Amino acid sequence: MGRPLLRSTERFGWIAVGVVAACGRPAESRPPAGVSTGSLAPADSLVLTLEDSVQIWLSVGRDARDSAGRPCHERTVKITSPRGSVLVPLLYTGRAPERLDAASLVAELWKNCAPMARYRVEVATGRPTPLRGQ
Question: Which has the least CB within 10 A, 20, 41, 96, 122?
């Protein structure tokens, strides 16, 4: 009467083959955990600690190239405190911000791996304001 139906052990074997095939590349051909394959992006970096446990971090960002084609990674600025954290909007930099006074920082806006303008950043809100003439 033709070929008999697959026994349960044969079905299990085919399921196992399918699962193994779906897993992708073998572990030895994958990059080690934590290694980026397509970006110069470093991990978040603590760059400044202020009073009241306020911390200034260089965080996520974007890959860029300078006029000669050399790559760099421009990063955002993140301000953390016991009340929470805020990412400074629309400001990518290649250099750590510096303290300006008790309530603010100075950060450089970078584009194509070069500084373009300097901004005052309010520590409490993360709001950047252009510094004129500096």
Answer: 20
Cβ-count burial of 109 within 10 angstroms (0-12 exposed, 13-18 middle, 19+ buried)?
middle
Domain range list for the chain:
45-130
Tokens of 65: 């190239």
* C-alpha dihedral (30, 31, 33, 38), degrees to nearest 10: -120
- By CB atoms closer than 10 A (0-12, 13-18, 19+), residue 23 is exposed
- Tell me the per-residue pLDDT of 100-112, one tens digit each, with 9 for 90 and over: 998 999 999 999 9
**Per-10-residue mean pLDDT, the chain, length 134:** 55 47 45 48 88 95 96 96 95 96 96 97 97 78
